[in-house]
């Protein structure tokens, strides 16, 4: 039995509540935010209705360009690190016994759902002088005394990659779990060693999945707003931090909204691209 | 050789994933008010403080209440939508499915700012219940995905048989479909619950000045220095997530929920 088209009006009844909720609490807020991005900021008050492009014109400043450039480079680096480690990892994970897969999946889910506050706190403890990794190096005689490694760009990159890694594995998992096992077998029969078969057969077969995953992780990293504050220096702040800062502490909602609209456009374009790339592979 | 390399690689990943959590757990057992690792002395006082200190206990209860409420609301939105999309052929209604997925894929700061603009315009800025609705919309993706998956696993010949024997839509849903979909519904609730518990930016933007959830409380406290209490709260977060996802794995099919087709491989 294939599903029929709804016939009577009351067939639509189950749709009413979800449609209403999503429209009122997602579409409308989104519309209000877009409207506010064209409003004029009033010093001392908040903003008043208008239709100006001032908030978008501020994008042309060198400061904004620098923050945007940094955010994009940082997100790209995180995507690269996470996917490079996660792809072979997920391949191996999907070949473990079911029991071990479940154990790993529970662990990965627990870490990916952790708040950025928690991840930031945990890593800054690990990078601290009193409880950090440098104490191990001192104990091994590789360093003379423990030191603090945070805040720094390296600390930020580590924290972000740590948070993005389980996300990447979960995005890659379906494709690698469904991967045709005969693909590897055929390569092995023809005499390729497992690592060689992996590099020359599995990676090219899933290159579009890899690309699509990279874009998804890029968007995920672009959204981080607390780790740059907890693990990075002020020069390491990203667009998401800037948006929060303008909205809450500078009370400049119109400018924050304009930046958010810009971020939406960038993210939507990237997500669309990743869907397109992913679909191309499914069609092959 | 290759097998050894595989084991080594997996073990290394496990070590890096566990390291920050192990260190934080160790720090939470310090006898003194310092963050040293390995801990000096052993004490569970910091765990006790989470429950005895009015500030931490209040934040914990607020977080739990918001998570329970918003996960329930998210399921209430996702279930009828997923059922409608499965029961009827209505391509345009997929629009709402896309709307339910969008907030989760976009950077969360965008959704947060949207809610801030909305609640401020509507005049409810700062009210605690606005966090519940905001979280429900933000997290509706999770039950939507799991419940949709649940419906797709229902054999349509079962509902057809029930209908032939005279059951109306409502009866089929209640007696045939619902029991089959329940594990997916519970998983969706669990996912939304854990993520709401950990969510910071939306809660902060919508009601950060009046409502203190645990993540907000931790971030505010970080500014005045790090204490072992925070480490204890972190251990609580990790334990809660691991416990809830273990339950999901125990009563549901986690690999299948996360996108692997086969469920009967050993």
From TrEMBL, chain A:
It is a multi-pass membrane protein. InterPro entries: MetI-like, MetI-like_sf. One of its GO terms (biological process) is transmembrane transport. It comes from the Bacteria. The keyword Transmembrane applies. One of its GO terms (cellular component) is plasma membrane. Keywords: Cell membrane, Membrane, Transmembrane, Transmembrane helix, Transport. Pfam families: BPD_transp_1. Residues 68-274 form the ABC transmembrane type-1 domain. It is found in: Cell membrane. The keyword Ribonucleoprotein does not apply. The chain crosses the membrane at residues 12-39, 59-90, 102-123, 153-176, 197-227, 255-278. Belongs to the binding-protein-dependent transport system permease family. CysTW subfamily. This is Putative spermidine/putrescine transport system permease protein. It comes from Chelatococcus caeni. The lineage of its organism: Bacteria, Pseudomonadati, Pseudomonadota, Alphaproteobacteria, Hyphomicrobiales.
UniProtKB/TrEMBL annotation, chain B:
Residues 60-249 form the ABC transmembrane type-1 domain. Pfam families: BPD_transp_1. GO terms for cellular component: plasma membrane. Keywords: Cell inner membrane, Cell membrane, Membrane, Transmembrane, Transmembrane helix, Transport. GO terms for biological process: transmembrane transport. The chain crosses the membrane at residues 60-86, 98-120, 132-151, 172-195, 201-219, 231-252. It is a multi-pass membrane protein. It comes from the Bacteria. SUPFAM superfamilies: MetI-like. Gene3D superfamilies: MetI-like (1.10.3720.10). It is found in: Cell inner membrane; Cell membrane. InterPro entries: MetI-like, MetI-like_sf. Belongs to the binding-protein-dependent transport system permease family. This is Putative spermidine/putrescine transport system permease protein. It comes from Chelatococcus caeni.
């Amino acid at each position: 039995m294939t599903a029929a088209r709804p016939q009577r009006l009351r067939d639509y009844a189950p749709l009413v509540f979800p449609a209403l909720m999503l429209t009122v609490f997602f579409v409308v807020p989104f519309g209000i935010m877009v409207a506010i991005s064209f409003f004029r900021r009033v010093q001392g008050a908040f903003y008043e209705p208008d239709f100006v492009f001032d908030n978008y014109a501020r994008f042309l400043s060198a400061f904004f360009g620098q923050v945007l450039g940094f955010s994009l480079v940082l997100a790209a680096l995180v995507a690269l690190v996470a996917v490079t480690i996660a792809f072979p990892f997920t391949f191996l994970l999907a070949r473990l016994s079911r029991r071990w897969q479940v154990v790993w999946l529970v662990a990965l889910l627990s870490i990916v759902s952790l708040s950025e506050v928690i991840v930031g706190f945990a890593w800054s403890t690990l990078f601290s002088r009193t409880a950090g990794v440098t104490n191990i190096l001192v104990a091994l005689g590789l360093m003379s005394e423990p030191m603090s490694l945070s805040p720094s760009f390296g600390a930020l990159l580590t924290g972000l990659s740590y948070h993005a890694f389980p996300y990447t594995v979960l995005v890659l998992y379906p494709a690698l779990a469904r991967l045709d096992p005969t693909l590897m077998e055929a390569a092995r029969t023809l005499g390729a060693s497992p690592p060689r078969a992996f590099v020359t057969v599995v990676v090219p077969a899933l290159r579009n999945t890899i690309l699509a995953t990279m874009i998804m992780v890029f968007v995920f990293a672009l959204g981080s707003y607390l780790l740059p504050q907890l693990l990075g220096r002020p020069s390491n702040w990203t667009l998401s931090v800037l948006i929060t800062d303008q909205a809450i502490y500078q009370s400049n909602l119109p400018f924050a909204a304009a930046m958010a609209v810009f971020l939406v456009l960038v993210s939507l374009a990237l997500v669309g691209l990743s869907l397109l790339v992913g679909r191309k592979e499914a069609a092959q | 050789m290759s097998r050894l390399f595989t084991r080594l690689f997996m073990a290394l990943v496990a070590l890096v994933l566990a390291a920050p959590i192990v260190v934080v757990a160790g720090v939470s057992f310090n006898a003194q008010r310092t963050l040293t690792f390995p801990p000096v002395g052993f004490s569970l006082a910091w765990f006790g403080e989470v429950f005895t200190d009015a500030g931490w206990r209040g934040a914990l209860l607020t977080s739990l209440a918001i998570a329970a409420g918003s996960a329930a609301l998210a399921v209430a939105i996702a279930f009828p939508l997923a059922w409608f999309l499965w029961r009827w052929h209505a391509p345009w209604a997929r629009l709402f499915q896309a709307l339910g997925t969008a907030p989760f894929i976009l950077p969360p700061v965008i959704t947060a700012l949207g809610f801030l603009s909305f609640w401020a315009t509507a005049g409810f800025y700062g009210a605690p219940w606005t966090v519940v609705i905001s979280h429900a919309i933000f997290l509706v993706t999770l039950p939507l995905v799991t419940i949709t998956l649940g419906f797709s696993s229902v054999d349509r010949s079962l509902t057809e048989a029930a209908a032939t024997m005279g059951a109306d839509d409502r009866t089929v849903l209640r007696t045939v479909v619902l029991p089959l979909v329940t594990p997916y519904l519970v998983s969706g609730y669990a996912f939304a619950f854990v993520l709401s518990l950990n969510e910071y930016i939306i809660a902060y933007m919508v009601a950060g000045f009046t409502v203190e959830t645990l993540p907000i409380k931790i971030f505010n406290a970080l500014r005045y220095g790090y204490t072992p209490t925070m480490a204890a709260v972190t251990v609580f977060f990790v334990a809660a997530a691991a416990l809830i996802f273990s339950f999901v794995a125990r009563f549901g099919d986690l690999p299948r929920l996360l996108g692997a087709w086969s469920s009967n491989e050993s």
